[in-house]
Design brief:
About 25% of the residues lie in helices and about 30% in strands. By secondary structure, the protein is α+β, with helices and mostly antiparallel strands. A 10-stranded mixed sheet has the order 5-4-3-1-2-7-6-8-9-10. Strands 11, 12, 13, 14, 15 and 16 form a 6-stranded antiparallel sheet that branches. Helix 6 packs across helix 7. The protein is globular. This is Sucrase ferredoxin. InterPro entries: Aim32/Apd1-like, Thioredoxin-like_sf.
């Protein structure tokens, strides 16, 4: 019901702009598993005011700093985002300290979150990105002692309207409501990928990425994160895009097991891709199979046969044409101690 009312609200407010890309995708039966933007770590830098489509070089942040952070983090396997307090559209932020979050460790099964206040964001350029990608939080703190451990996970909701209108029209409403309920635990952020699934959200430090947030689901995501969990209602194919430290197929394998056994703890599952001589292999021009082993921290394990299907679909961005997009189908087989197998899906 929430999805219908949000869609109706968009249509009535901006009648000349429909259909929005996320509206068209609302009706898709393709699972969102495996669509989170891959990143072994995340840097989030507070920058109030307007953001352009390429926000790191099109905001009131020094574009040289933004470009350097973007390049350096991507080269190390991470991502940089801009964030702002919900509704903070100040035109002048000169001299004011800005909040910075740095999240890592998810790939190693031990997610951590650092935070700090910085007047000059250029100091962030000196962080040891390769060590951060390897899960070393202390290496970052040695360079910038102002960074301290943050024990309260945060939810970032994309509201970057210059990048895609869906994120502004849908994302800002969800962010405003969630921030009204949970305050500083919710931030607006720049593009995280997948605006066709707006409103989208990212939890730090786990890197869990969500699609089609409703007001209620956004609050549930924040609340569950405080206990190191995902909300159970988000485990289905329509909401959990994936754990961002994994590749797309591995995200899908992880999500399928979570949905099957109702596992809510992000670090509880580890995913390993099988060797190239086993996978991947082409099934057809538009389908490719890869095999992964998903291991639970209680000792259980599954073989996940992940088929990547690339098919024509609706536009993936507002104002764009329909283009082929990839979705994942997962078949699970539980490995029984002693060499047996038990098929799940």
């Amino acid at each position: 019901m929430a999805r219908v009312s949000e869609t109706s609200q968009i249509s009535s407010e901006t009648p000349d702009q429909v259909p929005w890309c996320s509206q068209e995708w609302d009706g898709s039966e393709a699972p969102v598993w495996g669509t989170a933007s891959p990143a072994t770590f995340w840097l989030a830098v507070e920058q109030p005011g307007p953001w352009g489509a390429k926000a790191l070089t099109e905001s009131r942040l020094d574009p040289r700093v933004g470009a350097a952070l973007q390049q350096d983090t991507v080269e190390a396997g991470g991502r940089t985002l801009l964030i702002r307090a919900v509704g903070d559209h100040r035109t002048d932020n000169s001299g004011a300290p800005r909040r910075v979050y740095l999240a890592g460790g998810a790939h190693q099964g031990k997610p951590w979150l650092l935070q700090g206040l910085f007047v000059d964001p250029s100091v962030l350029i000196h962080l040891p990105w390769e060590k951060i990608a390897a899960g070393d939080a202390e290496a970052a703190r040695q360079i910038l002692p102002e960074l301290s451990y943050c024990r309260t996970p945060v939810l970032l909701i994309c509201t970057n309207g210059k990048r895609d209108l869906c994120c502004a029209v849908r994302g800002r409403k969800i962010a405003a409501y969630a921030a009204g309920q949970r305050g500083h635990l919710v931030w607006e952020c720049t593009h995280t990928g997948g605006h066709r699934f707006a409103p989208t959200g990212l939890v730090l430090p786990s890197g869990a990425t969500f699609a089609r947030l409703s007001t209620e689901l956004a609050v549930s995501v924040v609340d569950a994160a405080q206990y190191g969990r995902l909300p159970e209602e988000a485990l289905g194919e329509r909401h959990l895009r994936g754990m961002s430290h994994l590749s797309g197929p591995a995200q899908a394998a992880d999500a399928a097991v979570r949905a099957s056994v109702r596992e809510l703890r992000p670090p509880a599952l580890q995913v390993t891709a099988l060797p190239d001589d086993v996978s991947p292999r082409n099934l057809s021009d538009d389908a490719e199979l890869s095999l992964h082993r998903v291991t639970h921290d209680d000792g259980r394990s599954w073989l996940a046969a992940v088929t990547a299907l690339t098919r024509p679909g609706p536009a993936v961005s507002c104002g764009g044409a329909g283009v082929p997009s990839t979705s994942y189908k997962v078949e699970l087989t539980e490995e029984i101690p002693g060499g047996g197998m038990s098929s799940h899906r």
